[in-house]
Design goal:
mainly alpha, 2 strands
């Protein structure tokens, strides 16, 4: 996974030995979620949802849409529970 910090410096993060692709995607989503803000105004779950609607939803099957929606719900739930505990 690659991301840029506030100074536009590129960073890499990787973790191996996931049992499934969905486990790896959830780890990646959790890592991004812990970074909190993407551009200073947008939290990752909102950014991910916008990205999904714009780039993925128009061209994927209903089963894949269901998988993305489950991930979006997990991200939103994680954000809400984390914000309530802060």
């Amino acid at each position: 996974m690659t991301w840029y910090d506030d100074d536009e410096k590129r960073h890499y993060k990787s973790k191996y030995n996931f049992k499934t692709k969905s486990e790896a995607e959830l780890w990646s989503a959790d890592f991004q979620l812990n970074k909190k803000e993407i551009d200073g105004n947008t939290y990752f779950p909102e950014y991910f949802n916008d990205w999904y609607i714009t780039y993925k939803a128009p061209s994927i099957t209903n089963r894949t849409k269901s998988t993305y929606m489950q991930l979006i719900n997990v991200l939103k739930t994680s954000t809400l529970s984390k914000n309530q505990s802060d």
